[in-house]
Amino acid sequence: MFTRAAPGGRRRTDDLRDASALDVMRAQSPVRRLAPDPIDDATVLTLLELASHATAGQRRRCEFVVVRDPDVRHQLARSYRQGWSVYRRVLHSRAGDDATLEARQWEADHFEDVPVIVVACVRGRRPMFSAFRAASFYSGVYPAVQNLLLAATALGLGGAASTLAVWSRWEARRTLGLPAGVTPVAVIPIGRPRGVPTPAPVAPVGNLVHLDRYGHQPFRGRAPH
């Protein structure tokens, strides 16, 4: 059921199974504080089936490694904390957002406690040159990741995508038993949120829209009706 959050039409939710797609999109936001309560296989497969629709028909499809084994989760958590020890300083210098830093630190400290970790992978190796080829390479992954997060929100679950746990592709391949021709791209812990998550505030869409050329913003300050 829905509970209205602060002004702006954003909502927080425990369960959005009967909600429209628009409501789910507005409710979805990164959830990093997750409870260790188990998530059954049927639910995980439903999430991944919905995720796979995002790249149906593409030549390069997203594949998923579902991690439940405590030892494997621990190895991924160790890699996450190694990456976080560096990225934390970068994030602090860029944003200085205490709430974001606290949430990311909590995730780093409890990463192996999450019941399910999904590693999104793609067949092939990332092209070393050409931004166009690199963008094409990743296009088979991130739409599926976003579908996965939307599906989790709709089922009252939460998660957030990150690359910190796979910052070392060699270590990730060793931990997950990935062949050389499969590249880990993103890691998504999935679980039940601790408390009721409230979506972060979003700037008026008009502030993000440029018409015909960058800098021309006739919709600035407007909110959608």
Q: Any chance you could write out the topology, listing elements then pairs?
A:
Layout: E1 2-4, E2 11-13, H1 21-27, H2 41-52, E3 62-67, H3 70-94, H4 98-109, E4 116-123, H5 131-138, H6 142-154, E5 158-159, H7 169-176, E6 182-191
Antiparallel strand pairs: 1-2, 3-4, 4-6, 5-6
The whole-number mean of residue pLDDT values reads 85
Task: Kindly report the CATH topology.
Answer: NADH Oxidase
Residue share in helices? 25-40%
CATH H-tier superfamily: NADH Oxidase
Based on DSSP secondary structure assignment, what is the total number of beta strands?
A: 6
Order of helices and strands: EEHHEHHEHHEHE
Structural class: alpha+beta
Please explain how this structure is put together:
The chain has 225 residues and is an alpha+beta fold. It has a single domain (13-192), classed as NADH Oxidase (3-Layer(aba) Sandwich). 38% of the residues lie in helices and 14% in strands. The chain contains 7 helices and 6 strands, in the order E-E-H-H-E-H-H-E-H-H-E-H-E. The chain has helices at residues 21-27, 41-52, 70-94, 98-109, 131-138, 142-154, 169-176; strands at residues 2-4, 11-13, 62-67, 116-123, 158-159, 182-191. The strands form 2 sheets. A 4-stranded antiparallel β-sheet has the order 3-4-6-5. It has a two-stranded antiparallel ribbon with strand order 1-2. A hairpin with a 6-residue loop joins strand 1 (2-4) and strand 2. Helix 3 packs antiparallel against helix 7. The longest helix is centred in the middle third of the chain and has 25 residues, at 70-94. The protein is globular, with a radius of gyration of 18 Å. The two termini are 23 Å apart.
